[in-house]
What we know:
Elements: H1 29-37, E1 47-48, E2 53-54, H2 66-99, H3 106-109
Antiparallel strand pairs: 1-2
Amino acid sequence: MKSIAPQYLYETADSFTVSKPNPKIGQDYALSSAVLKLKPGEISKPVKGAKGYYIVKLNSITEFKESEYILKANDIRKNMLSSKRQQIVSEWLTKMQSDADIIDNRSKYLN
């Protein structure tokens, strides 16, 4: 591909998961969806993602292990709730700051 169209950027990613995407690619649902439809050894058609087009060869896939999930489910839930709480507080604080009418009266008290 590089010799045919050298003007494009080419990267490779050895592995990724839906919950922990590859740092070069980031979270791209179109790519994740396309990869989950492949069987090991298959090569995808070009997939249009958020940052460009991808061609994927699926070498292997690790199957979902429900027993591991059940053990970690409570911690996952706690982390998700904590993140959501932080997001809500941050959004509330930003809204409060943007809606506030602040009057600077320091000059009345500084002499």
